Each structure stands twice: as C-alpha cells, then as structure tokens.
C-alpha cells in the first residue's frame, strides 16, 4: 500500500470500516511511514480531540490512537481464528455425516 492509498483510507480506518488484509496493510504502512502516521495522528487528534474538548474530558490521544491500532489488529486476528475454527467444525460435521451415511450403507 502506498501513501496516497493509505491517506484515502484514514477516515475508513477511524470509522472502523477497514477489514481483513486491507486493515493489516494499512497498519503496517502507517507503522513504517512517518508521513502517513503523522497524517493519521492529525486526523485522529482533530476528530477525537474536538469531541473530548466539548465534553471537558482529559485525554492522551497519541496513546489512545496507538491502543486503537493495536485493538484493530487483535480484532482482525481473532476474526481469523474464529473463521478457522468454524471451518474446522464444518469439516468435522461433513466427516461425521459421511461416516453416518457410509455406516448406513453397510
């Protein structure tokens, strides 16, 4: 993913709208590109900072952005594990059904 593509996806990332490989590529690029990380930080600070100032809350948006990025990666990895688990269960179900039919034919 290049810088232009990454910058176009910042708003989708902040809206939790990136999925799968797109999310991982975005985060990998942001973590390796100082310019894109700065742009992400600016957009995050502007959107979250204004909301927090209106609420009168104290905040550390830089830390929160880092935590948000890590949370998104953890969610992605969890979804992958769940999909793998479901696939394993589906295969087991097919094998059990095939075994029942094979036994019934004997």
Can you walk through the features of this model?
The protein is an all-alpha fold and 106 residues long. It has a domain of 74 residues. α1 packs across α2 and α2 crosses α3. The N and C termini lie far apart (56 Å). The mean pLDDT is 89.
The topology string of helices and strands comes to HHHH
Biggest β-sheet: count, sense, barrel? Answer: none
- End-to-end distance, in Å? 56 Å
- Strand coverage percent: under 5%
Helical stretch tally: 4
Give the overall shape, derived from the CA principal axes. elongated
> Radius of gyration over alpha carbons?
21 Å
| Tally of DSSP β-strands | 0
What structural class do the secondary elements suggest? Answer: mainly alpha
Pick out the low-confidence regions. none
Mean pLDDT across all amino acids: 89
Task: Report helical residue fraction.
Answer: over 70%
Topology:
Elements: H1 3-14, H2 20-32, H3 34-55, H4 61-105
Helix pairs in contact: 1-2, 1-3, 2-3, 2-4
Write a short abstract of this structure.
By secondary structure, this protein is mostly helical. The chain is built from four helices and no strands.
């Amino acid at each position: 993913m290049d810088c232009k593509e990454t910058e176009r996806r910042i708003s989708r990332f902040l809206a939790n709208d990136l999925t799968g490989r797109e999310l991982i590529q975005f985060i990998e690029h942001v973590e390796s590109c100082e310019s894109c990380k700065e742009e992400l930080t600016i957009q995050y600070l502007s959107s979250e900072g204004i909301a927090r100032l209106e609420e009168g809350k104290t905040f550390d948006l830089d830390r929160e952005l880092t935590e948000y990025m890590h949370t998104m990666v953890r969610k992605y990895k969890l979804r992958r594990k769940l999909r793998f688990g479901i696939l394993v269960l589906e295969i087991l179900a097919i094998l059990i059904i095939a075994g029942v039919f094979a036994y019934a034919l004997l």
